[in-house]
Amino acid sequence: MNMYTAILVAGLVASASAFSADATSQPASPASASAPATMPRILVLATGGTISGTADPRSAIGYNSGNVKGQELVRGVPGIEKLASIDAEQISNVGSQDMNDKIWFQLARRIQEAFDKNEADGIVITHGTDTIEETAFFLQNVLRSNKPVVLVGSMRPGGTTSADGPNNLYEAVEVAASAQSRGRGVMVVMNDQIHAPRWITKTNTTAVQAFASPNAGVVGYVDPASVRFVAPVPQAPREVLNLPADGPLPRVDIVYAHANMDGRQIDHAIADGAKGIVIAGEGDGDASKDALAALDRAVKKGIVVVRSTRVVSGFVNRNVEVDDDKRGFVVSLDLNPQKARLLTQLLVANGVTDAAKVQQAFSGTW
Ligand code: ASP
User: How far apart are CA 77 and CA 167, in angstroms?
Assistant: First the structure.
């Protein structure tokens, strides 16, 4: 049994302590009472974002996020009560640029509790789109269940002529309630597409078609009448990492590479006590000689160094232009910098800091 498998097994047996009764959200109250008892039970957990926003008349594209609470959101979607028996709870009410460890842990614990106590067949999380990919990836790495957990957002707030929230929420509930979603775990539904957490990324700042999964494509499609998966249900065992028992995830910094780069930002991260550094490298995770020398200094101090890329698609491979074996670096493969950061945080929190073991974990999370 290698170290990473040991974490998986330990994680499975320690599930009760990692997700103990710390859920502080309000008790569920029905958003719709009209669904027959035989319908799938879907729990909507609202966190904020544009999907809960309303247009601001003072500016053409301005809006105030977080105006509409989870239960109201559900009630505002015509026909949604025919898909499932739906309860809604408010976990937070933030723009997802303010998503943080505290809300993540609360969300993870509430989902685990709902599944462990058989309160729901599937979960829908309403979320801002800026960091929806990070929350999806975080949850996929810590949840001990493969029941469907569907994150959904919108690019336009309620009250605008092209508001996309109601249809996205309808389709998210449709996917979470579908028998075809069993065993698929965490997914993201946006604009008629179903994405997997490892691959989804935001590729447009404002367009309704904002998301893509560049290295793999979508896992399915949804419209108000049908759910169609084009990828099989994942069969490989999924590694599960524990949340830290006390306090937030360890600090891991992302440093963005560019032409004419020196090592100062990396040296600052070292001096500030980062436990890991992810370089959003150029091309295949490259960086200037000065930046690489600073990363060598980080490795010497026991800091985990991961080479990711600022390029939107492709893999960062080991030992191409940079001698990772010699320097003690890890490559992120297809994980973008923000997801590489999260995985490094979770690994460090679980005591995995050896470069070879971190590399093994990066290679084995899909
Ligand atoms: N800033 C918003 C958020 O991420 C944008 C959105 O939801 O589309 O919460």
Answer: 8
